[in-house]
Design a protein that fits this description.
Layout (H helix, E strand, L loop, with lengths): L1 E5 L7 E2 L2 E2 L1 H17 L4 E5 L10 H17 L3 E4 L6 H4 L3 H5 L3 E4 L9 E5 L2 E8 L4 H8 L6 H17 L6 E7 L32 E5 L5 E4 L2 E3 L16 E7 L5 E7 L6 E6 L1 H6 L10 E6 L8 H8 L3 E6 L12 H5 L4 H13 L5 H24 L1
Parallel strand pairs: 1-4, 4-5, 5-6, 8-9, 9-10, 10-12, 15-16, 16-17
Antiparallel strand pairs: 1-13, 2-3, 7-8, 11-12, 13-14
Helix pairs in contact: 1-2, 5-6, 10-11
């Protein structure tokens, strides 16, 4: 049986100030074409279909379009909810949609009830484990301590119990949305540590032929049978080295797995640049990044004038500007209180300006600060007199 493993679509999410809906629509088109071109038997989507619990209407319309296009191919799709999704909202109408070959699994109570699909070699049981928030599902799984490992292990125990009762040779696929030990994080995943330690060992899934993971945005192989597909599009500059892709997985008659990465189209490359403003504007080696989405970290000791306007002249798609001036180390062992000792309010304010900007205030700015402090003191004096 041939599977296409994807996850973390995050429909409705933007990349900094760039609307990604067009790129997300492009990915859905690519997904449908990949299913057709590679004769995929089943599509699996491992959570975070949407970027938030109440997605914008345009994202819902795109999801609806994706379901109709997949159903029209006659290729079954198994899908779970992730920690960004509202399980209840995503699961509305799941029973009816099942009849169209779109199998939404959003209820933790159904972890041990698979979608059973067949090929020439027999049955394959697909178990959907939606994102399991420990504090909310510990009673369902009968665990005393609300932790990710405990509830996920209990859910997989249900999978193994159901699988043991099926005909010998039944193959198994588990969809899960979790942080599994060994996975590499990025800045764009929402933290799931609430309720216990987030990471769970991959050994939790022992006995399953293939585990299609979602949550982490980088495509990763934890074991030959346990993989993250990653997000099909970038959602933070921490993903600038990611190769966005999906897994094309062949599940053989004996349950052995072979997998191939298929690249996803991305609208624009990402680049993280660092240096002084003049260096970034002049360095010929940065020419390949001129059409990329850019995060620029400026190391100028003094903040230059109009840095974003000047950067966008060369890098028109600059989206993020960070200041990290290169300065000498401060005197070691000197406390904050000692640094302020015997200094006037005016001097402390001027020091702050110097620290933030890299250069002290000029004469005009010193006058502004002086007038501000004088006004505050006059106000304080007036209040004391009024008392």
């Amino acid at each position: 049986m041939r599977l296409l493993h994807t996850s973390d679509w995050h429909l409705g999410r933007a990349f900094h100030r760039v609307n990604m809906l067009g790129a997300q629509a492009g990915f859905i088109g690519h997904l449908v074409e990949t299913v057709r071109e590679h004769a995929v038997d089943v599509v699996v989507v491992s959570g975070d279909v949407y970027d938030r619990a109440v997605p914008p209407l345009a994202a819902v319309e795109l999801f609806d379009d994706a379901l109709h296009r997949l159903a029209a191919l006659g290729v079954p799709t198994v899908m779970i909810s992730g920690n960004h999704d509202s399980a209840r909202r995503l699961g509305v109408g799941a029973g009816l949609i099942d009849r169209a070959g779109i199998h939404l699994r959003t209820d933790p109570a159904g972890c041990g009830t698979p979608v059973v699909l067949g090929d020439a070699h027999g049955d394959v049981a697909f178990y959907g484990l939606p994102y399991l928030e420990p504090a909310l599902v510990k009673a369902e799984f009968g665990v005393e301590k609300a932790g990710h490992e405990a509830v996920l292990a209990a859910a997989v125990d249900r999978v193994r119990a159901d699988l043991a009762a099926r005909a010998p040779g039944t193959r198994s696929v588990v969809l899960a949305h979790a942080f599994v030990t060994g996975g590499e994080q990025s800045d764009s995943e929402r933290d799931i540590t609430v309720g216990g330690v987030a990471a769970v060992p991959s050994g939790v899934f022992d006995g399953v032929d293939y585990v299609a993971l979602g949550h982490l945005h980088g495509c990763q192989t934890l074991t030959e049978r346990v993989r993250y597909s990653g997000s099909p599009l970038p959602y933070s500059f921490s993903e600038h080295r990611h190769r966005k892709s999906m897994w094309l997985v062949d599940l053989d008659a004996d349950g052995s797995v072979s997998a191939e990465r298929l690249d996803c189209p991305v609208p624009r490359a990402l680049a993280r640049l660092r240096g002084t403003l003049e260096d970034l504007l002049a360095d010929p080696e940065l020419t390949p990044h001129e059409d990329a989405w850019v995060e620029a970290t400026l190391t100028d000791p003094v903040r230059p004038d109009e840095p974003m306007a000047r950067l966008t002249e060369r890098f028109p798609h600059t989206l993020s500007l960070v200041f990290d001036p290169e300065r000498g180390p401060e005197e070691p062992g000197v406390s904050y209180a000692r640094r302020l000792a015997d200094r006037s309010d005016q001097q402390i304010a001027e020091d702050f300006v110097t620290h933030v900007r890299g250069a002290g205030p000029d004469d005009r700015e010193q006058d502004v600060l002086r007038d501000a402090f004088d006004a505050v003191r006059a106000d304080d004096t007036a209040r004391e007199v009024a008392r």
